[in-house]
Please model this.
Amino acid sequence: MNTPKPLGSSARPAVHFTAPDGWLNDPLGVTWRDGRYELFYQALPGANAWNPRCRWGHATSPDLLTWTHHPIALEPGDDELGCWSGGLVLPDLASALSARVYYTSVDEPDMDLGTVRLARPADDGWQRWDKGPIVVTPPPGEDLRVFRDPVVLRDGDRWRMLVGAGYRDGTPAVLTFVSTDLEDWTYDGVLASTRTSPTGPLPSAQAWECPQLLQIGGRHVLVVSTWRDGTTHDVLAGVGSFEDGRMRVERWQRLTHGAGHYAATEFVDAEGEPCLLFWIREVADLNGAWTGVLSVPYRLSLDNAITDQVRLTPHPAVPAPGADSRRSGVRHLVLADGSAVGLTPTDHNSSPVEVRYERGTVTVTSHGAQTVVHDAPGPVHVLVDGPVIEVCTGTALVGLGTRP
Model:
């Protein structure tokens, strides 16, 4: 797991979610219910660097921007080292107690090969969760190096679980399991891997983490986060068709550039629109009070004129361009092709950042290093929120923190 350098000032961002204290990484189980959003996330209270003893933090919000923190929802017991990433499913919208969390339970000596454990809510507010049994283990016959990050979705008259995986030969994959009752699961093979990709070489990966499968119109989109050599890298989206438990990707797209966004989680907002939320790695409090932030939410659509290219747009909840930044705490700029903006951080110890949009290419320059995104359709959104900067090119994201 990457450990970010101490970037930015000690001020918290206004609309980017941070843990009350300590470490934060993957967002999990975002759910709209009873007039509010539920958010879970990987948390390490009191820590300013990752370690394997992760918990599930919990917060709620009416608008995806202002959050109320709640007690830790899940924490490791005597029989596990950490409660790692997973997902939440709510089979009966009228019953909060019907919810199920499926998370990666890890232990030594091989934490990369996790198991999937079930947890049920002990109250309607999802404040406390009772752990159940391990329901899925790495399938026999698959020579796996990595197995983690389950998510569950409805597939016709049954349930389907996706789990991120990587083979010992270096092939990343998403494996899949099926169930009729959310209790007993049967292995159903490989949902997708680089061996099944018809679109040529992809960014190098030894495993795909945090798999998400969503539908936009009549098309399906598989979102995966790439892991190799023990570190996190990029987020990819594959557009195609999902049928009979297999995802046939026709077009892959890189959604993130640089060392910012990772571990995307999919959710449906209050208006029923598909969205993604990301962990931004390279931001932390200089005084060590908090480390890591979540991105603002992004709505997804498909540009059918460009062979089903995934489009990302800051969620309408985000302060609009031109809004009073003194009131919202966020500066939201929109760049037209042929323009640039220099961002001078309010912290005098931090260096300026330049974002340039020219002839369809976005270049973000910070501390002499450049992140370049080609074929950017625009409009290019630039969000500045205290120590956090997000750049949305229309089809990809660049995230960073200002740093000394």
Q: What stands out?
A: The radius of gyration is 20 Å.
